[in-house]
Hints:
The structure holds three protein chains of three kinds. By secondary structure, chain A is mainly α. Chain A has helices at about 5-25, 30-55, 65-80, 85-105, 115-130, 170-190, 195-205, 205-210, 215-240, 250-265, 270-285, 295-310, 315-345; strands spanning about 140, 145, 150-155, 245. Chain A is about 75% helix and about 0% strand. In chain A, the strands form two sheets. In chain A, strands 1-2 form a two-stranded antiparallel ribbon. A two-stranded antiparallel sheet of chain A has the order 3-4. By secondary structure, chain B is of the alpha/beta class. Chain B folds into two domains: about 1-85 and about 160-170 and about 190-240, P-loop containing nucleotide triphosphate hydrolases (Rossmann fold, 3-Layer(aba) Sandwich), CATH 3.40.50; about 90-155, no CATH class. Chain C is mostly helical. Chain C contains twelve helices and two strands, in the order H-H-H-H-E-E-H-H-H-H-H-H-H-H. In chain C, strand 1 (about 125-130) and strand 2 (about 135) form a beta hairpin. Classes of the chains: A mainly alpha, B alpha/beta, C mainly alpha. Chains in contact: A-B, A-C. The interface of A and C includes residues 110 and 118 of A.
Amino acid sequence: MRLYGTFSGTLVVAGLAIIFTLLAPSIFEFFTIITLTQVIGLSILALSLALVWGFGGILCFGQSAFFGIGAYAYSVAAVNIGGSTGAIFIAILAAAIFAAILGYFVFYGKVSDVYLAVITLTVSLILYSLMRRTSGPEYKIGKALLGGFNGTGSPPLNVPGNGSAMLFPMQTFYVSMAVLITAYVFTGWLVTTKFGRVCVSIRENDVRTELLGYDTRLYKLGLFSISAGIAGLGGVFFCIGVTRVTPDVFSLGQSALAIIWVIVGGRMTLIGPILATFVLYFLTSSLGSQQVFNANLVLGIILVIFVLLVPNGVVPTIAGWFERRRTKRYIRQKERRMKLRKHRATG
Amino acid sequence: MARREVVLETRNLSMHFGGVRAVDNVDFELREKELRCLIGPNGAGKSTFFKCLTGQLTPTSGDVVIRDIPMTGREPHAIAGLGVGIKTQVPNLFDGLSAYENLWLSARRWHGDKRASQLVKETIERLELGEIRSATVGSLAHGQRQMVELGMVVAAEPWLVLLDEPAAGMTDEETYKTAELVREINKTSALIVVEHDMNFIRAISDIVTLFHQGSIFMEDTMDVISADPRAREIYLGHKS
Amino acid sequence: MDLFFSLALQILYGIANLALISLGLAIVFGMMRVINLAHGEFLMLGGYTVVVATNNGVNIWFAMLILAPLVVGIIGLIVERCLIQWLYGRMIDTLLATWGLSLLFIGIITSVFGASTSTVISPPLGAVTIGDYTSSGYELFLIFVVIVLLILVYLTLKFTSLGLVARATMQNADMAACLGISTSRIYMVTFSLGAAVSGLAGGLLAPITGVLPNIGVIYIAKAFITVISGGSAILAGTTSASVLLGGVNGIMSYVTGPTFGEVALLFTAIILLRLMPTGITGRFFRKSQ
């Protein structure tokens, strides 16, 4: 039975993820669990890019822009509202609406792929520049000081409805894993819907899709906004994990990382980029702050090797390898059967 | 016998590229369930005219009216959205998807999941695409790709079909099948077919429109046109 | 009047600066439609070449004008042979691979020289006074160099056989190949020359910006945006985009301060791309080189 690439496959992975979540506290150190929340946030960013780029074919260099907007929106909203639940929804909406406006500008103007990638990167850089300049007491939204290049604090999650009942780190971990799994299943489902299939066809051949009567601009806009919302959600959990959000979320480095995770993990899959985020994060942090084999060096080598040699990423390459073995075995069996039949016919 | 109503017309349609008048003040009419072929030598303006009809080009001046709705310069998806099936000159397919998925995307535009799947099944049977239904379209031969694209057009159950060189690159057998298919489509839809293959044209059409240097030179049956000395001169060197 | 001149000079320098950092990238983009995201690092390497050379007693002018372009040109040659040539036609893949290369270079330089040592060398020309205002003599020199460079590139393209062959390959690579031109060699030479120009630019700017491993990151964003906005014609594109974006940046910086000047530059680029998706020269100067 073919599991790879189907919704049943998505559910199987989700099931494994649930098991992982329940077992994690017994396997990992407490400190690792605390760090995981921010990595989960980053992996949601990777998921959003896998959706819009892998399935939609829309390369977005500046996906970190929506990630950062989500993080800032959550932090500012949570401080002002006094609770986290509403703030999360505000963050997702803020990212999605921003993307919708930008996307309208871009898709209805029929700008081509490469230039869209540039524009989103430019927007991310603008936000980086702007947010760095917001030090000083006059830069605030409501009760929240924007804080310039030091950024602003991000309130932790609290029990919905009860603003003063903060969640413990272990509980925050459970919540963030639950959110990740939900986002993953949602995305997996989205790809199987008519909307998702049309988005894939737009990636394959934009003109043909239009000639079939689909308004491709609308579909691209929709996918772009949804993935931005997911990226914003990632930003929320990232800043909760770090307890702070700084303009670095908008930096060139953050944008590059998102792309790297998706390439390494596998552009055409959803689970690949998520796993790649975890692996690369722990790889780079285990390198520590030593400068000889520093993070840039390692990431650079990885990116170059992957683009040249493993362009599809790890997960599809491995899945493809299994697929080929199965096909070879199937062909061998068929040949054997045919020989047997021949034998019987002549003998 | 009452004349059938006009389903597509152009008035004073012109398309200029710089100084070149690719389409020059063309008045054209197509009636309900009519099958019209557009013929003419290379550079006569047939394909440019065709693209003005599909929305792939915005005409410099003039009007395109479909079922009394002005559609001049509208986007292709709006025109296709009226129920018009379109097949372009170069096969325009989803190369990375299977033949089944290609057809499904077409049918799904107009119907829900169940009806779409059913329509796709019917189309596959009708066009004898059963063997290649799961094949990745990019790996198919040219003639097969053309067939799949015709299937996509048919699966949407259009009332007007625009085909640009449907028989190009096909074997004799495939051309024969395509002609049959076009005649069958004509039972329920009007058609405009741009073609070069004379045998194919004779097999399918009544009235033929001959383009020359951006305008309509003659509009009559194939027999009358091939007997006309001026028309033959335009086609000098072509088999007729 | 003096203020006007001083301001005009400042804006002119901003334009020249943008053109200087973008020219190398434009040469490569115009020829091969390759967007080399490691371009910023070529600039950085040029700067490090100058710093290392001068620290070892080499004359600064020699280091900036001869050594830096030579060293980075050779690095560019190696990069083209080992990486870029496998990725022609694959624009997105080239983008990603060169981004990886950029990280790699930053990583290597950090390993060798350390991350935080910002080595500063002083500009070899002093201040110049215009009435009440002092302008940097070195900035004037740079404006002069940029103009000379642009003229040199123009002359090379227009009047040398290399230039003719290059233009032919740019316009129709298949046809050029049919005429017996080794497009592979042209690409190799062009990429190396583009790298050399970038090395030169980085070397010249080293006294002004200082050298850090990640200084390329600042360059690449601006250069990238300038080249894309300019379109595929090397000279007309770079010049027109630099004038427009540099001008906006300069004026806005004067009016509202440097940060909003930067923001204005980026904003203008977005609007420009929306209006002219193939860049300025894609829309207007179709026939220029």
